[in-house]
Amino acid sequence: MRRHWKFSLTALIAMVVGALAAALVTGAAADAHPKPSTAAQQLGDPDYGVCRGTNPACYHDWGNFDLTQGVKVLLYTRTAGPRHQNLGPALAPGLNPPLTDANAAQKGVMALGAKYGFTVDYTEDLAQLASPNNLFKYNAVIFLSTSRDTLDDAAQTSLRQYIRGGGGFVGIHNAFGTEYNFPWYEGLLGGANYYDHGPYQTGTVKTLTRRDSATRDLPSSWGYKDEWYNLVPFPSKVRFLATVDEDTLPSGSTGSMGHPGHGDFHPVAWCQYYDGGRSFLTTMGHGQTAFDPTSSDAGDQNFQKLIVGGILSAAGAKPFCQ
Questions:
Q1: Which part of the chain is the ThuA-like domain (predicted)?
Q2: Inter-residue contact 194 to 174 (CB < 8 Å)
């Protein structure tokens, strides 16, 4: 016997609001880490058709990676649109081509690897990403201020196979301004994309947890100068690690395209398990000395602790997304 259900508009609204409230309560009980504070941010939860979130059950351990020889990462900085100054001139084809002094970010990550015990190969050559067998040589792949359609079809497929095989991904700064037409990649970033930013300015970063490998050695708050990306959509199903206090931004948080900012919860670093792999993300990393381990700037030093912890945990060498 078929049953017909009829709902009034008032009843339907009450049901939706009640379900949202219950979900918020359940989420708060299950995870003591801070969450976005507005309903719009909470509802920004697109479906990418993969297992994702903070549950380690979303990780696939196929035994593809060996840490006995140390951590090895691939740094990818190819741009197909705007190019950040700290990347310097575009690199020649191949793996580990010559660098100039202007390639500050690449040189900085290599120096951080030497300081903290991980090996860095670097490239802007699509051929280096086109084969998953090549990517599986690395414990993590780092996208640093890539831009626009920086991957072709073969590289997209290869990256997806690598992540599904348990690979580690680190997305830094304009990795969020990359692959807008590749929904799976948006999910890899935590369900977020770059929209705009306000002026390059100093703000106060708040560390949300010190349980995680990326934030364990950070102070509870610290000053840093960056572009403070505004995002659409908003990260969801992730472990938020750090935010910027918009009240400390002298020129405000409104972006160049009119985004008003994220109010009292503006995340700048988070982590997640995604489609079998690990993913560590930060929107910071604009400055010319951001990656230079010889920088005397305290903000740079804290940022470097954050990304080194993120790299090593995404690579499986430290506990991930705690």
A1: 95-311
A2: yes
User: Largest Cα–Cα distance of the chain, in whole Å?
Assistant: 76
Which pLDDT band, with edges at 50, 70 and 90, does 44 fall under?
A: low
Please report where in the chains the tokens 């949202």 appear, as a residue. Answer: 20
CB atoms within 10 A of CB 125: 16
What single string gives the DSSP state of each residue in 75-142? EE--BSS---GGG-SPPPSSBS----TT-HHHHHHHHHHHHHTEEEEEE--GGGTS-HHHHTT-SEEE
- Give the H/E segment covering residue 270: strand 267-274
How far apart are the C-alpha atoms of 184 and 191, rounded to whole Å? Answer: 9
Assigned CATH class of 50-314: alpha beta
For residue 143, is pLDDT > 70?
yes
Q: Alpha carbon of 101 to those of 86, 112, 114: distances in Å?
A: 10, 16, 18
The HSE-up count of residue 69 (CA atoms within 13 Å, CB side) is: 8
